[in-house]
Design a protein that fits this description.
The structure is a single chain. The chain is mainly alpha-helical. It has 5 helices and 3 strands. The chain has a 3-stranded antiparallel sheet with strand order 1-2-3. Strand 1 and strand 2 form a beta hairpin. About 5% of the residues have low confidence.
């Protein structure tokens, strides 16, 4: 018999650790849809903005948006971020495809909205720049990325780059705060 205010005599059975770690299928599906939706939005905005800039700007042309702080300047970037490693253009599609595969694998364990947003931004940015590498001149797998946003003392970039950097900041914040893909924190 139990007395009032005390713990119950019979403890409820605990689920296995593996079952606790697995996200609920409906929630996991919703978060996967969120991840894919964010990625698709990033790719659509990135590619549309690049097409627009290609239609209205000439290479090297500068258009002031916010004075000297923000300008539009069309650049065809054969390299990685900040124009580095321009001789290794063929490697970047392979790296982007690896990112896509890793995110697809991680998405199966996803139970955190914040991680879904971060991975969606990363996936969208990677796919946006991958599309340039695959379909823009000078050829398949060697295409140059279209960059057009210019800040003072900063390399020219695009919306896909912005999504990748935003994802990196969010991933670092989630990791430092102890939030895991399954939505749980660490102590």
């Amino acid at each position: 018999m139990q007395s009032q205010g005390r713990t119950p005599l019979a403890q409820p059975a605990r689920q296995s650790v593996a079952a606790d770690a697995a996200p609920h299928p409906v929630r996991a599906r919703r978060l996967s849809v969120l991840l894919a939706g964010i990625a698709a939005l990033v790719v659509a905005l990135d590619q549309a903005s690049k097409q627009w800039m290609l239609a209205v700007l000439h290479p090297g042309q500068r258009v002031q948006i916010l004075g000297e702080f923000l300008q539009l300047r069309l650049v065809h970037n054969p390299g990685a971020a900040f124009g580095m490693a321009s001789g290794l253009t063929i490697i970047f599609p392979v790296v982007a495809l690896a990112v896509v595969v890793v995110i697809a694998r991680f998405s199966r364990r996803l139970a955190s909205r914040a991680w879904a947003v971060a991975l969606g931004l990363l996936l969208g940015g990677a796919l946006g720049n991958l599309a340039d590498r695959l379909f823009r001149p000078p050829g398949v797998g060697r295409g140059h990325v279209v960059d057009f946003l210019a800040l003072p003392h900063w390399p020219v970039f695009n919306l896909a780059d912005s999504a990748i950097v935003s994802a990196a900041v969010l991933i670092v914040a989630l990791t430092v705060s102890g939030r895991s893909l399954d939505g749980r924190g660490h102590g």
